[in-house]
Specification:
4 helices; mainly alpha; elongated; single chain; about 75% helix
C-alpha cells in the first residue's frame, strides 16, 4: 500500500542518516521525498499524459521493478510518464 511505501522510504532515510551519523541527511532525504511526491501529483494531473503512459510509468516506479520491496519511486514514475507520453503512448 501507499502507506507502507512511505513508511519504508522514511525508514530508509533514517537508516542512511544514522549510518553516516548525520541527522541533516535524514531531514534532507525526507524533504526530497516530499518534493518527489508533489512532482508526482502535478504529473498525475497533467492532462497531456495519457492513461496508457501513466500506467506504463507506474510499472517502472512500482514495487516490482526497484530494489527496495514495497517502495514506490515517485519521481521516477512521474519522469517516465513524461517519457512515455513523449513517445506517443
Amino acid at each position: 500500500s501507499l502507506r507502507n511505501s512511505l513508511d519504508l522510504s522514511m525508514a530508509s532515510c533514517s537508516d542512511v542518516g544514522a549510518y553516516i551519523g548525520e541527522k541533516a541527511l535524514n531531514h534532507a532525504c525526507v524533504q526530497g521525498m516530499a518534493r518527489n511526491i508533489v512532482e508526482w501529483g502535478k504529473t498525475a494531473n497533467d492532462h497531456s499524459i495519457s492513461d496508457r503512459a501513466w500506467n506504463a510509468a507506474a510499472m517502472d516506479g512500482s514495487i516490482n521493478y526497484n530494489p527496495v520491496k514495497y517502495e514506490i519511486l515517485f519521481s521516477h514514475w512521474a519522469g517516465m510518464a513524461r517519457v512515455y507520453s513523449s513517445r506517443g503512448y
